[in-house]
Amino acid sequence: MSTKLKVLLLVAALVVVGGGIGLIVVMKSVAGPEKQAGKLTEGDCVVLTGSGKEADAVPTSCDSPQAPYAVSLTGVDKGEWNCKDGFYKYAVPTPLRGEGVALCLAINAKVGLCFDDIETKTPPPLKDCGSARLKISEVFPQMSVVNSPCAEGTAEVVSYASYGASKFKSATICFVKP
Fold first, then answer.
1. What is the CA radius of gyration of the chain?
2. Would you give per-residue pLDDT tens digits along the chain (178 residues)?
3. How far apart are CA 150 and CA 160, in angstroms?
């Protein structure tokens, strides 16, 4: 084989390898940044960011007043999935990276957090307490369905049960009108 042919083959191989690397870089940038929701486990507290294809659930300290939700269950978003009654359904798409992340969320029971509508299937946004319909007044560390431990005058009550050995904690949350 002549030297000229060897050089041409080497250049062709470099172009193919460089093109492959370039394609990988382009595909990763099209897919967007890695979603943090994929790393969540039961019991983590989260802040929801973005919407649609940009949606994500970012882990945050459960003591933070800006962490309105706790993860009760994680899974793979295959389109049709449901959470148990009282839990909120939230999907985080992962374009070009396979199936998205499915989350079942509960309200992170912190006295003083305010919401408008807690009866929805999707997570209700935090509200300023001056304009909100409901405010968390009390939190009890167990699920209570029959005899509510909430004080008289409570407007709404939500109870959550943990799933077996999960890090997600059961709770009864009492809401009053602010």
1. 24
2. 778 777 777 766 666 666 656 545 444 444 444 688 888 988 899 999 888 888 899 999 988 877 889 998 888 887 677 888 888 989 888 766 567 888 999 998 889 999 998 988 888 888 999 999 999 999 998 887 778 899 999 999 998 887 665 678 888 999 999 8
3. 14
Is the pTM value of this prediction over 0.70? yes
Q: Under 8 Å CB-to-CB from 159, ≥6 apart: which residues?
A: 86, 143, 144, 145, 170, 171, 172, 173
Distances (CA, A) of 113 to 19, 62, 74, 126: 52, 13, 24, 7
